[in-house]
Amino acid sequence: MKAERKKIQLDDIDISILKLLQSDCRISLDHMSKILNVPKSTLHYRIKKLEKQGVIEGYYAKVNPAKLGKEYITITLVRAKYGPGYHKKVGEKLAKLPGVWGVYFVLGETDFVVLTRANSREDFLKVLEQMINSKEIERTSTLAVIEIIKEDPRIEL
Questions:
Q1: Any residues with CB less than 8 A from the CB of 55 and at least 6 apart, and which?
Q2: DSSP letters spanning 114-129
Q3: pTM for the predicted model, two decimal places
Q4: What is the pLDDT of residues 34-66, one digit of tens each?
Q5: Strands in the chain per DSSP E
Q6: Residues 48 and 102 in one domain
Q7: Does an H or E element contain 14, and which?
Q8: Residue 58 lies in a domain
């Protein structure tokens, strides 16, 4: 089993730390210590350990895409041409397209699910043209998102 696939065992303190950081990654160790009733030194050690284990991969600001004009959201189903290592090659190519924020290799009739955010339909069509014109891609089918019902990048703990 690969190291990055190995499930990490978390205790109640680790889970509490992760919940707080997912709620506000700028929370101070002082504040966290008061909430959890755990010494700051323990929290610092635990957070560093979670980072080293790859449980915490980074810290990000939650940016409102609509405020930046990125309201045109699409889900594109991609069928690719089979070949040795095609999923890595095609997946990496899709991931580099402008506006792409998610690429998933899936099983079934579809090979990839590609999630994009664009300023407009016209901007998205430029990305779609790149997909369609790629020799590794056989077919695409795109869904345009009309309304976001739920979108939450946090992991349920």
A1: 8, 10, 14, 18
A2: EEEEESSHHHHHHHHH
A3: 0.83
A4: 999 999 999 999 999 999 999 999 998 888 998
A5: 72-80, 100-105, 112-118, 137-144
A6: no
A7: helix 12-23
A8: no
Q: Which residues form the domain of 47?
A: 3-52
Q: What is the pLDDT of residues 94-152, one digit of tens each?
A: 999 999 999 999 999 999 999 999 999 999 999 999 999 999 999 999 999 999 999 98
Distance in angstroms between the alpha carbons of the first and the last residue of the chain: 23
**Residue for token digits 């407009």?**
120
Q: Beginning with the edge strand found earlier in the chain, give each strand of the sheet holding 72-80 in spatial order.
A: 100-105, 112-118, 72-80, 137-144
Amino acid at 99: G
Please state the domain count of the chain: 2
- Two tokens at 42? 């323990």
